[in-house]
Amino acid sequence: MKRIALSGAAGRMGTACRQALSEAPDLELVACIDQAPSDGALTFATVAEALAATTPDVLVDFTAPASVEANIRAALAAGTDCVVGTTGLSAETLAALEAAIPAGTCLFVAPNFAIGAVLLMQLAVQAARFMPDVEIIELHHNQKKDAPSGTAIRTAELIAAARPQPQGAPGAESEIPGAAGARGACVEGIPVHSVRLPGLVAHQEVIFGGPGQTLTLRHDSMDRSSFMPGVLLACRAVADRSGLIVGLEKLMEG
Ligand code: NAD
Question: Which helix (H) or strand (E) segment is 103 a member of?
Answer without folding.
Answer: none
